[in-house]
Amino acid sequence: MFSNRRSDDVAAPRAGRPRSETARRAILDAAADLALAETCVPTIDAVAARAGVSRTTIYKWWPSSAAVLAEALLDRFHESIEFDDALPVRQALTGQVDALVRLLRQTPAGALLRQLLAAAASDERVARALLAQWMDPRRESAAHHVARGVAQGDLRADVDVELVVDALFAPVYHRLVWGHAPLDADLATRVCDLVWPGIAATEP
Amino acid sequence: MFSNRRSDDVAAPRAGRPRSETARRAILDAAADLALAETCVPTIDAVAARAGVSRTTIYKWWPSSAAVLAEALLDRFHESIEFDDALPVRQALTGQVDALVRLLRQTPAGALLRQLLAAAASDERVARALLAQWMDPRRESAAHHVARGVAQGDLRADVDVELVVDALFAPVYHRLVWGHAPLDADLATRVCDLVWPGIAATEP
């Protein structure tokens, strides 16, 4: 549903689309492979070498290696925000929170996100890339299901969609960033159980 | 109520307590003053010079300038977690979330926390100091009021205290760290309104 959105973030080249799509694909794969193998933000040179492209080609589309990596991670883990509208809203939202928890528990994505957030604290371009390439698409997907819940009468008509998305996902990111409590396997279910009474439509 | 706790985190010197207390006080004040004036983690040398102590004196008690700053910030803003047991539980918890929001809106504390978190991503000692000196005391204070609410029958007996504290405070830190949405002046009230139905005891 959101899979067409990402390529719109980058100006499409006027000609040679197939070849540049191949290059973009190779760059994203190289960045994700290198980062996940070594749990650190790869250099532009390393990504260029692995993808078989020039540094100039990468800088044509991304301002920094952190920006490449943010998009590469979203791309690599995109299925974690793909939940069908046929699912009940609560199941879709719990599933999306759970997919994030599993991503952070089972892959180096959590450690990489911490490094990208650390870079974002002192580099506004990284902060913007991280929002645009990682957080915004994930939030949009969750907000879509919250809005669907309101439209279907499952959720209160007056819910603050942005705040509901925060309430569902913030505890997971909070534990990742501060490390004060574990990312338990059942964390998503417990968070959704806690939040649900505050957003569910009351019976008429 | 928690004000006696902090000094226990550091081994009390066997003799000369008054003089070392004066030095500790001067170091914490120097670290907070420098950090808040310049919105960056001060160097050990700068803290030592301003406090009129040697580097050795600082390293006797803290492993790094980030650790000094974490404790200095907690110390400087300690009133933001001091809520009286005479207050109704919901008012005490909302007040504590609101005090955090105001701290992040109105002082450089938020920018400093982002820098400390960035340092923590690559330095486990900073991560531990930040938890011990900033987050743990704040969470303990909130957990105290949650437990009080359970004891008084205001909150469900089966609440997960740690998760409730996450649910109340994580959205605030989440917006600070990612910057995807503003730290609105009424954020604390909205978060507490959203969380409350999930934790309030149902009428018998």
From TrEMBL, chains A, B:
Domain HTH tetR-type residues, every copy: 21-80
Annotated keywords: DNA-binding, Transcription, Transcription regulation
Pfam families named in the record: TetR_C_11
DNA-binding region ranges: 43-62
InterPro entries, per the entry: Homeodomain-like_sf (IPR009057), HTH-type_TetR-like_transc_reg (IPR050109), HTH_TetR (IPR001647), Tet_transcr_reg_TetR-rel_C_sf (IPR036271), TetR_C (IPR011075)
Protein name as it appears in the record: TetR family transcriptional regulator
Keyword field contains DNA-binding: yes
UniProt keyword annotation of DNA damage present: no
GO molecular function, one term: DNA-binding transcription factor activity
